[in-house]
């Protein structure tokens, strides 16, 4: 059986990848799903708890990521922000209405941000501790994102 996704190499600037809007969008989607189940018989189900936990984790992580990314961006010069890095994404082989899964969207975002963090770790001198502290914080937050379990719509 063939996967619905293919691996595609991408190149983007550090500046464009230092953007957590995908995580904010996922947080909003999960909050909307949770809010739709609130006040119904679904509120006492395992699915509700999973959706609630994913929504809260995404929102909390986004809030912290946004702050850390802003701090990091302010520490970098224009030349560094314009540098292009290569990363990989999973892309749907065939167009479909629903688009990529939430897991894939998080994974693609993590792939891009890790490429940036890897580049910065190599490019920035070790004695620039503020940058390396930001890199460590963002790395930790991406690990939190990897632990999110997105419930299936019908499971």
Characterize the structure shown.
The chain has 155 residues and is mostly helical. The chain has one domain. 62% of the residues lie in helices and 12% in strands. It has 6 helices and 2 strands, in the order E-H-H-H-H-E-H-H. The chain has helices at 14-17, 21-37, 46-75, 78-82, 102-123, 129-146; strands at 5-13, 84-92. The two termini are 22 Å apart. 23% of the residues are buried.
Secondary-structure map with pairings?
Blueprint: E1 5-13, H1 14-17, H2 21-37, H3 46-75, H4 78-82, E2 84-92, H5 102-123, H6 129-146
Antiparallel strand pairs: 1-2
Helix pairs in contact: 2-3, 3-6, 5-6
Highlighted features:
62% helix, 6 helices, mainly alpha, globular, 155 residues
In short:
62% of the residues lie in helices and 12% in strands.
Q: Note the run of SSEs as H and E.
A: EHHHHEHH
Per DSSP, the total helix count is 6
Largest sheet: 2 strands, antiparallel
Query: Which percent range describes the beta-strand content?
Result: 5-15%
Mean pLDDT, to the nearest integer, reads 92
Unreliable residue runs: none
- Total strands: the figure is 2
Please state the overall shape, judged from the principal axes of the Cα atoms.
globular
Distance between the termini: 22 Å
- Report the structural category: mainly alpha
Task: List the domain count as a whole number.
Answer: 1
Widest sheet: strand order? Answer: 1-2
* Radius of gyration of CA atoms, rounded to a whole number: 17 Å
- Fraction in helix: 55-70%
